[in-house]
Amino acid sequence: MKVKVLLDIDGVIADFYSGFGGHLNKKLNAGLNLNKGPTNYSLHEWGHNISREVIDKEIPKWVLDGGYANMPIFPKAKEFVYKLMDKYDVHIVTARVGDFLCYLSGGVKDTIKRDTFKWLKKHGIPSDKLFFEHDKVNFCQKNRVPIVIEDKLPTVIDGADEGIRCILMDRSWNQEQDGLKRDHFNIFVAYTYDDILQILEELTSGS
């Protein structure tokens, strides 16, 4: 039986920063350097001078304009997912809807879900185990998923504290956040997709 693995989308295989950041540059002249990632996970803290209120208004506009359907994919991500799915029972879990739940209309939420399926199909990635869950730690506990591949540091730390082995994809925004650090014994930092596969091999050997 294959070992279950949770795979996050944004920040791991999909380049949300280039996608939404490109929209902000085009529509609001935000001046974001899309070749250099932000130092903070929160899109409200990306270092530009646009107010939170303005950004919040742009999110549904971007979504309805096909933002998630046309999200850039990281180089070599597709090949990585194919290899991952060949060896593991991959559950693709995204917090896309939950992250914006407080101010998105039903139509926008439906578009996020529909366009996520479109994006996966576009890249030939199976979506039969796609889940929209904000609380990924709870998802793992309920579904007995022992390993997470994620880019959000607080999520990884919460999972690690609960005994879930977490592979953190190294990104500019997860070096350290609000005093949180990556030095937990259940956190394994990966710098490339090959690193992830190697870490998984070591974690599951003998399973």
Topology:
Layout: E1 4-7, H1 16-28, H2 52-64, H3 77-87, E2 89-94, H4 96-99, H5 106-122, E3 130-132, H6 136-143, E4 147-150, H7 153-161, E5 165-169, E6 187-190, H8 193-204
Parallel strand pairs: 1-2, 1-4, 2-3, 4-5, 5-6
At a glance:
This protein has 207 residues and is an alpha/beta fold. It is 42% helix and 13% strand.
List keywords for this structure.
13% strand; single chain; Rossmann fold; 207 residues; 42% helix; 6-stranded parallel beta sheet; alpha/beta
The CATH level-2 architecture is identified as: 3-Layer(aba) Sandwich
Which series of helices and strands comes N to C?
Answer: EHHHEHHEHEHEEH
CATH class: Alpha Beta
**Amount of beta strand:** 5-15%
What is the count of structural domains? 1
* Biggest pleated-sheet summary: 6 strands, parallel
* Euclidean distance between termini CA atoms: 9 Å
Structural class: alpha/beta
Strand order of the largest sheet: 3-2-1-4-5-6
Principal-axes shape call: globular
Calculate Rg over CA atoms: 17 Å
What is the CATH homologous superfamily assignment?
A: HAD superfamily/HAD-like
Mean pLDDT: 92
Please count the helical segments.
8
DSSP summary, beta strand count: 6
